[in-house]
UniProtKB/TrEMBL annotation, chains A, B:
It comes from the Eukaryota. This is Formate dehydrogenase, mitochondrial. Pfam families: 2-Hacid_dh (PF00389), 2-Hacid_dh_C (PF02826). Substrate binds at I124, N148. Belongs to the D-isomer specific 2-hydroxyacid dehydrogenase family. FDH subfamily. Residues 158-336 form the D-isomer specific 2-hydroxyacid dehydrogenase NAD-binding domain. NAD(+) binds at R203, I204, D223, P258, L259, T260, E261, K262, N284, D310, H334, I335, S336, G337. Residues 65-360 form the D-isomer specific 2-hydroxyacid dehydrogenase catalytic domain. InterPro entries: D-isomer_2_OHA_DH_cat_dom, D-isomer_DH_CS, D-isomer_DH_CS1, D-isomer_DH_NAD-bd, FDH_NAD-dep, NAD(P)-bd_dom_sf. GO terms for cellular component: chloroplast; mitochondrion. It comes from Dioscorea zingiberensis.
Length: 425, 425
């Protein structure tokens, strides 16, 4: 297999891959070693036969893989030089990872993985993969695009309602044996009539806007481009070109942007100050879009009246993460994309891609993050567009090799963060 | 004033009220004594200028009332023979109460309240008023119909999502310094594709169905009559004539029925057993519709996989109420109808009715529970239809005097519970 990759890299250097693509993408004949890294379910594994995303069930594809003569290793042990994953790095062909219990696929691991051809994300996202190294090694990186966009959009609407209606203080009263309606009611509101702004209106943002429609809110969205007129008309959402002009209008701000170098720390002290006093913020995108301490400080001062999300920086959140202790938080661990329904969808998507890989067929195009060392870009822009959050906006899609083809369009840094996808789930 | 009521009762006995209605309904000239009983806000009163539903703000109508020469007493002290309310019973003209901190208007209190003409509910519901006694005394009882139906419908959708997506265990992990995705995920689902059935599709039920539409669920409703075809078509909700035939189909059951003698204890052990194993139940209607212990037992056994609501039996829930301790509960105190938006609406509605009362004008017809001793019934049925939960179904509305006009149509018991309204909020 090392030979195969070396050959692949030579062809790549020639810049004449298109006609070879199908052949290159095909798995070499014979048994493959496939490794999956998932979270452990322990006592919970037996409680639900559809709980396929855990290490105990390994996406439910073991019998299918083994019946075809492939080897399938699953583990949750992914850290340090002596972990189970590390033992298999030298000879695995396919590595399946998940954002919910990420195995970090570093440049070093990619270098050691001489047989590696395919990195699959069970779910959406590739934060945990060094995409530049993967592209440089001619690998294919793919996710199950769309597998949990509905899951996340539903979860966002739940969090909006939990904050607007001040659910948690009431629930805590119940647990503590109390009954004090006033202590809840003085800051409980209806969602109706409020102004909700989404920062990003890609797939998840659009699904959220559709679900918000019957609540009779004022809906705003900030994105780089306007959405399709039909959808804008259907949802009644108004386009806001300037983020800083939208924020002071919003009672609720929802983050639906991917993590890129442009969005990292986007909500720092200054930007939070531009929000309305008493703003509610929902962020199921990525924790690093927020300045952790600035959010905690604004919750303490009351400038942010409520903050809810399932994403943290870092993950898992350490015991002393300030968001665990700030007032009016409605946080959970990273969970919204790994509902049982989401798991069944991404397990089916991974199985489908493995089947295509064995047969030498292309994957659904939207699933590719890196295709045999090439990254998708859209012509007409040098910036990355995340498919899990931003629609392609009808721009022509092209496959380019980072560092080789981009030339003056972008620097390697831009390739890393703006052309390659940093998904949100 | 005692004279006035005596006169009124005499006219009533003659059964010739219609032509007299306007005159009778008019307040006698001069200063009125108006008493309002609300919950105390304490330290929370100053935290929100729109927190008008508390005793400290008294619906924000003091200046307006006093500028017209009326006396306005507000208190939260409503229990026992020496409470503040009791002192004012003998000479008050108008008593304003709320379901969130109910002052029980018993037959005994009505007998003592010789000047009483008008009982207003700040909110919706008259559980706490002895309607038979009020009707017998020729009083008018009215609520602000519709003032918080949106509040309750939104709250129900929030609770559905909290249960379906298994929000609370994740949040408790955050508080306890833990991070265990599997312990949440094994029973977290998307709402999409699930079957939701509402028991009752009146105002709140319909608003809920409209808000559920974009979630792509299978929507069912049980009611005595089918809803308007346009709304059925718009929401895609299917009519289920037989409750026991609907229940086994539902992943989520939402109670949107009023409390009547027919619905009291409707969900007992036998009926809960008819629900799908693992059913989720949301009940913001009335606690007494459920058999308290049967719900707790079914949650303990896992037959009910989650139960959420804001209504209890009794209220306030005592410290040892079993619903505080049962697994997978997402309970709060009775709060969904008293959001700040709801408070502003019912405060405006009470002010409007007082203004009409002073001027001798009729109230909006849907607000009447008892109109000068007469209860509304709809011809063609001997059963009560609650306007806060059941639409009038285009039946002709008539005003009848209980015990006098109903004759063979119904017994006094039916008048009490089926003809007189027992509202849900």
């Amino acid at each position: 297999m090392a030979m195969r990759r070396a050959a692949q890299q030579s062809i790549q250097a020639l810049g004449s891959r298109v006609s070879q693509s199908k052949q290159l993408h095909q798995a070499t004949p014979g048994s493959k070693k496939i490794v999956g890294v998932f979270y452990k379910a322990g006592e919970y594994a037996e409680k639900n036969p559809n709980f396929v995303g855990c290490v105990e069930r390994g996406l439910g594809i073991r019998d299918w893989l083994e019946s075809q003569g492939h080897q399938y290793i699953v583990t949750d042990d992914k850290e340090g030089p002596n972990c189970e994953l590390e033992k298999h790095i030298p000879d695995l062909h396919v590595l399946i990872t998940t954002p919910f219990h990420p195995a970090y696929v570093t440049a070093e691991r990619i270098k050691k993985a001489k047989n590696l051809q395919l990195l699959l994300t069970a779910g959406i996202g590739s934060d945990h993969i060094d995409l530049k190294a993967a592209a440089g090694a001619g690998l294919t990186v793919a996710e199950v695009t769309g597998s949990n966009v509905v899951s996340v959009a539903e979860d966002e609407l739940m969090r909006i309602l939990i904050l607007v209606r001040n659910f948690l203080p009431g629930h805590h009263q119940v647990i503590k044996g109390e009954w004090d309606v006033a202590a809840i009611a003085y800051r409980a509101y209806d969602l109706e009539g409020k102004t909700i702004g989404t920062v990003g209106a890609g797939r998840i943002g659009k699904l959220l806007l559709q679900r918000l429609k019957p609540f009779n809110c004022n809906l705003l969205y900030h994105d780089r481009l306007k959405m399709e007129p039909e959808l804008e008309q259907h949802t009644g959402a108004k386009f806001e070109e300037d983020l800083d002009a939208m924020l002071p209008k919003c009672d609720v701000v929802v983050i639906n942007a991917p993590l890129t170098e442009k969005t990292r720390g986007l909500f720092d002290k200054q930007r939070i100050a531009k929000c309305k006093k008493g703003v509610l913020i929902v962020n199921n995108a990525r924790g690093a879009i927020m300045d952790t301490q600035a959010v905690a400080d604004a919750c303490a001062s009351g400038h942010i009246a409520g903050y809810s999300g399932d994403v943290w920086n870092p993950q898992p959140a350490p015991k002393d993460h300030p968001w665990r202790y700030m007032p009016n938080q409605a946080m959970t661990p990273h969970i919204s994309g790994t509902t049982i329904d989401g798991q069944l969808r991404y397990a089916a998507g991974v199985k489908d891609m493995l089947d295509r890989y064995f047969k030498g067929e292309d994957f659904p195009p939207q699933n590719y993050i890196v295709k045999e060392g090439m990254a998708p870009i859209w012509s007409g822009t040098s910036n990355f567009i995340c498919e899990s959050c931003y629609a392609p906006h009808n721009l022509e899609r092209k496959w380019l090799r980072p560092r080789l083809d981009c030339g003056s369009q972008c620097s390697p840094r831009l390739i890393r963060f703006d052309l390659l996808r940093v998904g949100t789930h």
